[in-house]
Design a protein that fits this description.
heterodimer; A: alpha+beta; PmbA/TldD fold; five-stranded mixed β-barrel; about 35% strand; B: alpha+beta; nine-stranded mixed β-sheet; 10 helices; globular
Chain lengths: ~450, ~475
């Protein structure tokens, strides 16, 4: 309800800081307390067949409080910034602590002297964009997609969404961090139909200026994805080369970055835990987690514990260079936090990548295709949560796409799986594309060519 | 949670610009969890949320706003925002007479988790850790989680509905890592029911721990799964995930109505083998997806979706049912007060048949036997779906032989449903699930007896 809440201004989040300070004032004796407070305002407009299907206008707020005493950790969260509720939440966190077991490595993050790289995550133009124009944008996208191709027979949903908000982290260990951001996006999910067959597509754009959202890009992407699979058949099983476009290449890199979490390493859950300095991937692959890259919409100033974000080299020329750490895993592993704590108000910090950046190769996407005799250009992957195990490395996912024959894109295929292990996939990378792009989700990615993947079909 | 006069004034504010329908959904939720990892009770967490979502429908358009302020002023402000979002152009002076919905509670909760000392919850975790590690030196890591939640909801709308429900859930899960010459493997087991702490009178955490540990150990010796289409036998219990994906989502009226389902326009047709009778049932006492009323105030129902292979009905929420001039089937659900309701499954299961599991297996010359499934995913428009196998074996000469490594299976819903050629008499419900749709997660249950899919499923392995 925009009418009932103060809109964050581009200055400081003074009231949130004051509220957080009032919670810290209640810290007793040896107790270490960390308070994360956040509030956000969002709008979602969904349109269907030329009409507004739903318009959601929402304010949400929340708090997460971490208390550590005698090496014991307690946590509680609430969906409110009501001072009385915060008092209760602190009390619950304290009560929870009584039942946890002590761990000498437990502790809050402390300021480590690393300077924050300033980012410009705020956008007055998102906040000022009138509702009528949000609706108009969604309706226009729907219309463009419907008009783009006669095989587009409907659209499941077309939406405009935006959100802006701020959060503060304040702790007895001396952390004070303020994070503010605003962004907007459009998306559409068309259905393409020929005869009895239906295929779906997805198009998306995001940014910080609603007027600059690229409707053409979203339209072309959505229509192309929906129509290019029409007529797809199940291919015969074979081992072959696959080509992952940047969007899919980064989802593979995302899984790999999870295996490089210092927490997984400490707890014996990473197959790469003992491999620092070794070749774990093709020498063509270099990967960095770097939330300081201002060119990306995903850039961040601070991590989930309020430490400055920084650039962390993970893999260089295929050699494992380091792991990501939060303050706990850094302390326990005898290193330090790499500013890689990720969290929401509802959870304790955990280790995670924030903005992955792949180092590009040289050749264009078209050149990659033309260099493949027999392969699969993957359109979509499914079951990433059910068939990929980052502990064993087993990798098996559903897929569809276009065959590549003699260096050209050929017939569409569907209802197939791709399988290997994550360890093998990394070593089997035979080329990294020169087609670097900043994805709409924030990461910086290039296409990947991977050899010798098992395709299961008919 | 809210007094009737307040509810009436808020509904009046929601309908003040003219509305075909207005609704308040108020929710209060408490949750607690405890996590053991790396041999130690690592964290205890508690959460509390309360708030209300106000929905106003004008013609085809819905306006929605939510607030964490449950005071009358807070609710009226939200109602006005929702009314303005719905863009009604009339005036309304609606005063509704509210009729309390009488829906039976699916089951009684004997021991409220909030009344149980935290020390007892912690004890379960420690015991599970010990039991899992006792399965063998190969077990190198264990994590276990206890969680409970207590959700109170109130739904009132301008149709005169006033309903309340209290939903209590308790969950325990354990994951083990086994290490050997072939690397690491994982095993997981979980139990969750819409009951209180009495869950542990029925289930021993030690059994769960042993199952999880054995799954991980067994897979150390597993060979790569085969690649290609094969006959698949699915064991009793968790195989319901396959139906959830193969046809469950495709029978949701919102997707059907938009032409985004392969099952659109097929009512009355044979869509599955005549051995298939599929039910979605929110009334199943104690199951993970049960409730007294759905999140639109509609009493839970048992709905037959497919009877002897014939498609009987889709699943409906209030909005879609209203457009068709029919009643909701009690499938209007939402993740929280911050979300709009939509059509969701509850407990989805395949009725038992007549074959014994032994007959089904011994009748299968070669194939794959899956005794534990992971999650799944479906593209409802094409019907293509995947689901993971987390414990599986080869079938050779009618017998279960070697264990297989993890992987996904892929199939097409209508094709797989018509290829089911045996259904066992050993029906069982599976573990607790969270179903995700359009960014919202809700608890769901599922169940199946042993069944065989003769063709149409492709195993996503690497072995020729």
């Amino acid at each position: 309800m925009t009418a009932t809440v103060s809109t964050p201004q581009s200055g400081h989040s003074e009231d949130l800081l004051a509220l957080a300070a009032s919670v810290l004032d209640q810290a007793a004796g040896e107790e270490q307390v960390e308070v994360l407070l956040s509030r956000a305002t969002s709008t979602t407009v969904k349109v269907y067949e030329g009409q507004v299907e739903s318009l959601t206008s929402a304010d949400s707020s929340g708090a997460g409080i971490r208390v550590i005493r005698d090496g014991r950790l307690g946590f509680a969260h609430c969906g409110s910034l009501d001072p009385a509720v915060l008092v209760e939440t602190l009390r619950e966190a304290r009560d929870n602590l009584e039942f946890a077991e002590p761990d000498e490595w437990n502790g809050l993050a402390a300021p480590d002297g690393v300077e924050v790289v300033a980012q410009n995550g705020w956008s007055d133009s998102v906040v000022a964009f009138p509702v009528e124009r949000k609706i108009a944008l969604a309706l226009e996208l729907e219309q463009r997609v419907l008009a783009a191709d006669s095989r587009i027979t409907g659209i499941r949903s077309t939406a405009y969404g935006d959100a802006w908000g701020e959060s503060v982290i304040l702790s007895t260990a001396g952390i004070q961090a303020v994070d503010r951001g605003a962004s907007c996006s459009i998306s559409t999910q068309p259905l393409a139909r020929v005869g009895e067959e239906t295929q779906t597509g997805f198009g998306y754009d995001s940014g910080r200026v609603p007027e600059l959202l690229d409707l053409d890009h979203a339209t072309v992407e959505a229509v192309d994805r929906a129509t290019r699979l029409l007529g797809a058949v199940k291919p015969p099983s074979a081992r072959m080369t696959i080509l992952l476009e940047p969007r899919l290449a980064i989802s593979l890199m995302g899984i790999v970055s999870g295996m490089l979490s210092g927490e997984s390493v400490l707890k014996g859950r990473s197959p790469f835990g003992e491999r620092l300095g070794e070749q774990i991937a093709s020498a063509l692959l270099s990967l960095t987690d770097d939330p300081t890259r201002s060119e990306s919409i995903g850039a961040e100033e601070v991590d989930g514990e309020g430490l400055a974000c920084r650039s962390n080299l993970l893999i260089s020329d295929g050699v494992l260079q380091g792991f990501l750490q939060d303050s706990y895993s850094g302390r326990r592993s005898g290193s330090a936090s790499t500013g890689s704590a990720v969290r929401g108000t509802r959870s304790l910090p955990g280790v995670g990548a924030q903005l992955l950046v792949m180092q590009p190769g040289t050749r264009s996407f078209e050149q990659l295709v033309s260099s493949i005799d027999l392969g699969l250009y993957v359109n979509s992957l499914s079951g990433m949560h059910s068939g990929v195990n980052s502990i064993s490395g087993d990798f098996s996912v559903g897929a569809d796409g276009l065959m590549i024959r003699n260096g050209s894109l050929a017939e569409p295929v569907r209802e197939l799986t791709l399988a290997s292990t994550l360890q093998r996939l990394l070593l089997d990378i035979s080329e990294v594309g020169g087609d670097f792009e900043w994805l709409r989700g924030g990461d910086g990615a290039c296409s990947l060519v991977i050899q010798d993947v098992s395709l299961s079909g008919a | 949670m809210l007094e009737e006069p307040t509810i009436q004034r808020v509904l009046a504010a929601a309908a003040s610009r003219g509305a075909d329908f207005a609704e308040i959904f108020a929710e209060e939720k408490r949750s607690s969890s405890a996590l053991l990892d790396d041999g130690r009770i690592e964290e205890l967490t508690s959460g509390r949320d309360r708030g209300a979502g106000i929905r106003v429908v004008v013609g085809e358009s819905t306006g929605f706003a939510h607030t964490s302020d449950l005071s009358e002023a807070g609710l009226i402000a939200a109602a006005e925002t929702a009314a303005s979002a719905a863009r009604g152009s009339g005036t309304g002076t609606t005063i509704v007479d509210l009729d309390r919905v009488n829906a039976p509670r699916p089951n009684l909760v004997r021991i409220m988790p909030g009344d149980v000392p935290k020390a007892k919850k912690v004890e379960l975790l420690l015991m599970a850790n010990e039991m899992a590690r006792a399965e063998g030196a190969a077990i190198t890591q264990v994590s276990a989680r206890y969680a409970d939640s207590h959700r109170r909801i109130l739904v009132a709308n301008t149709d005169g509905t006033l309903g309340t429900d209290e939903q209590v859930k308790t969950l325990f899960s354990i994951s083990a890592v086994a290490s050997g010459d072939t690397g690491m493997q994982t095993g997981r087991e979980s139990i969750g029911r819409s009951v209180g702490f009495e869950l542990f009178d029925t289930y021993e955490v030690g059994d769960l721990a042993r199952t999880a540990a054995q799954r991980a150990i067994t897979k150390l010796a597993a060979r790569p799964a085969p690649s290609g289409e094969m006959t698949v036998v699915i064991g009793p219990g968790g195989g319901g995930v396959m139906f959830h994906e193969a046809c469950g989502h495709g029978l949701e009226a919102d997707l059907v109505g938009k032409g985004a389902s392969v099952f659109a326009g097929r009512l009355g047709e044979q869509v599955a083998s005549s051995l298939v009778t599929l039910v979605d049932d929110g009334t199943m006492g104690g199951e993970w997806g049960c409730f007294a009323i759905d999140d639109e105030g509609r009493p839970a129902q048992r709905n037959v979706l497919i009877q002897d292979g014939i498609l009987v009905d889709y699943m409906w929420d209030g909005l879609r049912a209203r457009a068709e001039g029919r009643a909701s089937s009690g499938n209007g659900r939402r993740q929280s007060y911050q979300h709009l309701p939509m059509v969701r499954m509850t407990n989805t299961y395949l009725l038992g048949g007549t074959s014994t599991p032994d007959q089904i297996l011994s009748d299968t010359e070669s194939g794959v036997y899956i005794s534990h499934l992971g999650g799944g995913q479906v593209n409802t428009a094409t019907g293509d779906f995947v689901f993971g196998m987390t414990e599986a074996y080869l079938i050779e000469g009618g017998r279960i032989t070697e264990p297989l490594r993890e992987g996904n299976l892929i199939g097409n819903g209508p094709g797989v449903l018509t290829s089911i050629d045996a259904v066992g008499n050993d029906f069982a419900m599976g573990g607790p699930g969270t179903c995700g749709k359009d960014g919202q997660g809700v608890p769901v249950g599922d169940g199946v007896p042993t069944l065989r899919v003769a063709s149409g499923l492709t195993i996503g392995g690497t072995a020729a």
